[in-house]
């Protein structure tokens, strides 16, 4: 082959390679790529091959609360591959910094002598990726070797007044835009809480009716425009906490628009049995949060904690296997109905040891007791 022919083939090959890196029309228009690499296409949605995909949430107080990437990196070192993150973690803050823990009360010393020190939390600069620096965030995750299972909720400072018809458009737009952001990373579902609890004795039916309307509209838009599923997360201290509130929403929203995020810890501490609820609403569950609680609370606590309870000195959630939630029974039921989806581990606080060591306890339980691969 002469040099002219070789040059022609080389140029053609170069043209093909260049064609593969052309940005789509809706690609990020701002922010340089890291280290001069070509910009990345949005990660394609890949059908889940395994029955259960194990994730971990990295917001644990006691060491991970002000550095989302520390949690992801240490979780990956243990063996977790998928991570669920609050979308607000990637939004700009008013002062440009990550906020340290708000409370600095004296800390309990636990058996073995461990005591968490608030002063060890460093105030760091906030790394802002939402809404138009998704490519830079994708590079960070590739460097760690991790993927997102979900980027949840809405933007920092966005409306979460699901009960207020006057704010309905703002609420839907806020959460839809974060869902669209998460889709760039291959996420196939979205979850959210329903805003802070207004009345300690329960959310009134007139508010639940408005919440149901908002959730249905949001879920419909997510399904039709993004091809993703959407679920509401009953959560202590939120508008949706107890069984009445949970069942009202399940009965007054369309299954194709609104699913359920069943959190074994929050369900138990709100007085419900997570095993019984899984059997009742298994067809609506799109994601489980696996979180353990004290053995005395097995089947649903008789003493629902108030928001004033100090979860660092008086915690009620534990690493998997250190409490009383019957995870083997939940797994047996899910296998019996051939349920497929995300099992996401979450631990709100780790006052007894660094969060990485609590995550390691959970990882060992998943592998050795539940016989699941991370």
Q: Which strand-content bin applies to the residues? A: 5-15%
* Shape summary: globular
Task: Calculate the mean pLDDT score and round it.
Answer: 88
Low-confidence stretches: 1-40
Q: Percent of residues in helical segments?
A: 25-40%
Radius of gyration: 22 Å
How many DSSP helices? Answer: 10
Quantity of strands, as a count: 8
Strand arrangement, major sheet: 3-2-1-8-7-6-5-4
Helix-strand category: alpha/beta
Largest sheet: 8 strands, parallel
CA-CA gap between termini: 52 Å
Order of helices and strands: HEHEHEHEHEHEHHEHEH
Tell me what you see in this structure:
The protein is α/β, with parallel strands linked by helices and 374 residues long. Helix content is 33%, strand content 11%. The chain is built from 10 helices and 8 strands. The protein has an 8-stranded parallel sheet with strand order 3-2-1-8-7-6-5-4. β5, α6 and β6 form a beta-alpha-beta unit. α2 runs parallel beside α10 and α8 runs parallel beside α9. The longest helix is centred in the middle third of the chain and has 22 residues. The chain starts with a helix and ends in a 6-residue tail after the last helix. 39% of the residues are buried.
Keywords:
about 375 residues; alpha/beta; eight-stranded parallel sheet; 10 helices; about 10% strand; globular
């Amino acid at each position: 082959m002469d040099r002219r022919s070789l040059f022609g083939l080389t140029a053609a090959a170069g043209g093909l390679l260049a064609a593969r890196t052309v940005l789509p029309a809706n690609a990020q228009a701002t922010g340089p790529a890291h280290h001069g690499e070509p910009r990345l296409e949005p990660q394609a949605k890949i059908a889940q091959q395994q029955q259960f995909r194990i994730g971990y949430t990295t917001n644990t107080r006691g060491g991970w609360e002000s550095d989302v990437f520390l949690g992801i990196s240490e979780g990956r070192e243990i063996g977790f591959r998928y991570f669920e993150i609050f979308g607000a973690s990637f939004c700009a803050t008013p002062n440009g910094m990550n906020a340290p823990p708000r409370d600095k009360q004296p800390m309990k010393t636990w058996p073995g002598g461990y005591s968490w020190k608030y002063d060890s939390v460093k105030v760091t600069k906030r790394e802002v990726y939402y809404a138009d620096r998704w490519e830079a965030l994708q590079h960070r995750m590739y460097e760690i070797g991790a993927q997102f299972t979900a980027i949840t909720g809405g933007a920092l400072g966005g409306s979460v007044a699901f009960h207020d018809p006057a704010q309905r458009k703002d609420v839907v737009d806020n959460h839809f835009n974060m869902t669209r952001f998460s889709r760039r990373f291959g996420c196939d579902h979205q979850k959210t809480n329903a805003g802070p609890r207004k009345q300690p004795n329960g959310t009134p039916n007139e508010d639940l009716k408005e919440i149901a309307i908002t959730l249905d509209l949001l879920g419909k838009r997510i399904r039709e425009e993004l091809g993703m599923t959407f679920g509401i997360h009953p959560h202590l201290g939120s508008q949706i906490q107890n069984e009445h509130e949970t069942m009202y929403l399940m009965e007054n929203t369309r299954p194709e628009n609104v699913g359920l995020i069943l959190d074994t810890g929050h369900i138990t501490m709100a007085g419900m049995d997570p095993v019984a609820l899984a059997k009742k609403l298994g067809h609506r569950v799109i994601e489980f949060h696996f979180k353990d609680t004290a053995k005395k609370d097995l089947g649903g606590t008789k003493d629902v904690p108030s928001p004033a309870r100090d979860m660092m000195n008086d915690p009620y959630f534990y690493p998997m296997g250190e409490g009383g939630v019957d995870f083997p029974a939940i797994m047996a039921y899910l296998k019996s109905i051939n349920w497929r989806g995300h099992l996401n581990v979450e631990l709100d606080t780790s006052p007894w040891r660094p969060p990485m060591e609590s995550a390691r306890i959970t990882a060992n339980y998943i592998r050795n007791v539940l016989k699941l691969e991370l």
